[in-house]
Amino acid sequence: MIAPILDGVIRDGRHTMRIRVYYEDTDFSGIVYHANYLRFMERGRTNHLRLLGAEQHALFAEAQAETPGFAFVVRSMQIDFLRPARMDDVLEVVTAPEEVKGASITLKQQILRADELLVEARVRVAFVCGGRARPIPKALRTAMRPDQERIGG
Fold it and tell me: What is the pLDDT of residues 43-70, one digit of tens each?
């Protein structure tokens, strides 16, 4: 099965995924351009959702029926750039839910090179429908709790 390899894994409530830094990710000096870390973290959040489990499609179908046209949007982000990544580095993007509230989730994300922390962020993602924050449907909120184990782990 190739998807878990590409999508990463969830272990101990944390999603981890590997990314290689390509030339296109860097600036003229061969260092990762700061905005590209946001792309790496977005992939981590997306794959974290993807690996919630076999019931993911049913959960999202239930949420769609309850709140048609829903979306998760980044509400706020606090980010610390600690060290640079360079072309050809293999990075690990780690995503872990910290808090799940009625209409939002706070995630801690880290980007590491081996055991070296390069970037750390706290991301608050809101559940919206029709341009307004809405409560996350209970089944989906339960599936996203920090203590959940999922496939790929």
Answer: 999 888 778 654 456 666 766 677 777 7
pTM of the model: 0.82
Query: pLDDT confidence of 108, banded at 50, 70, 90?
Result: very high
| Cβ-proximal residues to 84 (8 Å cutoff; 6+ apart), any chain | 31, 32, 118
Identify the residue whose tokens are 């590209």: 36
Q: Which helix (H) or strand (E) holds 139?
A: helix 138-143
The beta strands (E) that lie in 1-153 are given as 9-11, 14-20, 71-81, 90-100, 104-113, 116-129, 132-133
Candidates 7, 12, 25, 27; catalytic one:
27
C-alpha 87 chain-centroid distance: 22
Catalytic (active site) residue 7: no
pLDDT (0 to 100) of residue 3: 53
94 close to 14: Cβ distance less than 8 angstroms: yes
For the chain, the distance separating the N- and C-terminal CA atoms, rounded to the nearest angstrom, is: 14
- In the three-class reduction of DSSP (H, G, I as helix; E, B as strand; rest coil), residue 93 is classed as strand
* Two structure tokens written together for 128: 């919206």
